[in-house]
Design brief:
The chain has 301 residues and is α/β, with parallel strands linked by helices. The chain has ten helices and six strands, in the order H-H-E-H-H-E-H-E-H-E-H-H-E-H-E-H.
Length: 301
């Protein structure tokens, strides 16, 4: 669900807490036999100026205090839960504040241990509020971007400090795309230019498993097992990135490696992100990934 949407009185939390707005987003999925997975922001803003309507710290320490825009965060979250129940999605899996460990593309990003504490405490407040709404049986997915370079100030200890606790989390996931931002050893010039071969793709996947990242696939399995939680990938896809060439493009080897990793390690969640935007193309069935699509159909049915 959008963190910046609408204008004027329909922005941010007012937008998300609106039954009509949620209905417009979710109506096409009504009656689906599948369990819905919803991304819900923890910090909302205005589309007009990009300013944030709340902070992680407010969510942690002032959850019941009215915001400048009107009601309290607790009130908005209660409305969201009530509306989801009315729309038939009271059993959805909720990715609260997804990719909070990523770059500054989301306003709920954590940058230090204080942010991590506030994130975890705010998460607990949200979960307690949602569970109190009659008719809900939500599951909560602690969902990270992962694959952060090891030279970042956001180290593993800080990130793990944002874990809200086992009683507030039902699953742990990362997001993984076949991007390569700096790998001169495999591609001339250090980037794939939206093309690859099996050898190159395998070399990069080994780094995804256990390589140069703070959070990799080995970390995911180990950390989730330590918490006795199911794990997997909340987003994954082959990618074409026309603006910078960092995608590996039509990459059946990536599909094969994901399937092998998941089956070997017992991953529960594998949610393919099939879409496109102004920067990236992930549309598996759009004609740009014929080999990856064939491999996907062969392995996943």
């Amino acid at each position: 669900l959008p963190s910046y949407a609408g204008t004027g009185s329909g922005e941010g939390w007012l937008y998300l807490a609106s039954y009509s707005n949620l209905s417009s987003w979710l109506a096409p999925f009504a009656g689906s036999p599948y369990q819905m997975v919803l991304d819900i922001p923890m910090v909302c803003g205005t589309s007009s100026d990009g300013g944030s309507q709340n902070t992680l710290a407010q969510g942690a320490s002032s959850f019941t205090t009215p915001l400048a825009i009107g009601e309290s965060l607790q009130s908005y979250w209660t409305s969201i839960a009530e509306n989801l129940v009315k729309l038939g999605f009271g059993n959805a899996i909720l990715r609260l504040g997804w990719e909070f460990d990523g770059a500054d593309y989301f306003p709920w990003q954590i940058t230090n241990s204080t942010d991590a504490y506030n994130f975890a405490t705010y998460w607990q407040n949200i979960v307690n509020t949602l569970r109190a709404v009659p008719g809900t049986s939500f599951e909560f997915m602690w969902s990270l971007a992962g694959f952060t370079a090891t030279n970042t100030a956001l180290n593993q200890t800080v990130i793990e400090g944002a874990y809200p606790g086992n009683s507030y989390v039902d699953a742990i996931t990362l997001d993984l795309y076949n991007y390569c931002f700096d790998n001169a050893g495999n591609w001339p010039g250090g980037e794939p230019n939206n093309a690859t071969n099996a050898t190159q793709s395998d070399a990069l996947f080994k780094q995804f498993e256990s390589g140069t990242f703070t959070l990799d696939l080995d970390w995911l399995k180990t950390y989730a097992n330590s918490k006795n939680k199911p794990f997997g990938l909340a987003e994954w896809a082959c990618a074409i990135r026309p603006n910078d060439g960092y995608g590996l493009g039509d990459d059946p080897e990536f599909i094969k490696n994901i399937h092998s990793w998941a089956t070997t390690n017992g991953a529960t969640y594998l949610i393919y992100f099939s879409g496109s935007d102004s920067d990236d193309n992930y549309q598996l069935t759009g004609g740009d990934f014929p080999n990856a699509l064939m491999e996907y159909k062969s392995l996943f049915g």
